[in-house]
Write a structure and sequence with these properties.
Layout: E1 2-3, E2 10-14, H1 26-37, E3 49-53, H2 65-81, E4 87-99, H3 103-112, E5 116-122, E6 129-137, H4 144-151, E7 157-168, H5 170-180
Parallel strand pairs: 2-3
Antiparallel strand pairs: 1-3, 4-6, 4-7, 5-6
Helix pairs in contact: 1-2
Length: 184
């Protein structure tokens, strides 16, 4: 197993020699690996990874498609526990429109939500209005419109588009993983 550059997706290859794993079972191992990648170490899908099947063993009675699929899933789950997986979060680019007197409160609210202010400029053809550009984690956008309307006397608005994925570390990563774990 080895990481790939961001955006590469998943690659599976078999380098088994000598028939240690018969050809008909290799796709089952790949499906098992894919199954294991749907819920990685943090409970989120795993991407940008290359997995190479190097060896295996068959048994005359116990070998089956389900057995090889299960082995593939268990192997990738075990391997992921031993690696330094990184949690990625989606980041959106926001364009916020605010009356000028409220702009500083809006930028403070975005910053409090882990936003990164990219710029503030007058809104074209709207005297007394500001256009605020910012990056904001998608998870922080929940209830943003309610807060924005409260800060702008009901007049503020925003547009959001996915921009990129960013590494999530520390407490925020722990909270995201905890929130995604199934309750017992």
């Amino acid at each position: 197993m080895k990481p790939l550059p961001r955006g590469s997706g998943f690659v599976f290859q078999s380098k088994v020699v000598g028939g240690a794993v018969p050809r008909q079972w290799v796709p089952a191992v790949e499906m098992g690996v894919r199954d294991g990648l749907t819920k990685g170490v943090f409970g989120f899908p795993v991407t940008d990874l290359e997995v190479t099947l190097l060896d295996g063993q068959t048994h005359a009675v116990d070998s089956s498609e389900m057995a090889f699929r299960t082995v593939g899933r268990l192997a990738i789950e075990d391997a992921m526990k031993q690696t330094g997986a990184i949690l990625l979060e989606p980041i959106e680019k926001l364009t916020v429109f605010s009356p000028s007197p409220s702009a500083s409160n809006v930028t403070s609210a975005l910053t409090a939500r882990r936003g990164q202010i990219l710029g503030l400029s007058p809104r074209e053809d709207w005297r007394g209005w500001e256009r605020i550009e910012a990056y904001l984690p998608q998870s922080e956008r929940q209830d943003l419109i309610a807060e924005l309307r409260g800060l702008t006397q009901g007049l503020g608005a925003f547009e959001a588009d996915f921009d990129h994925m960013s590494e999530l570390h520390g407490r925020a990563a722990e909270e995201a993983a905890q929130a995604n774990r199934p309750s017992a």
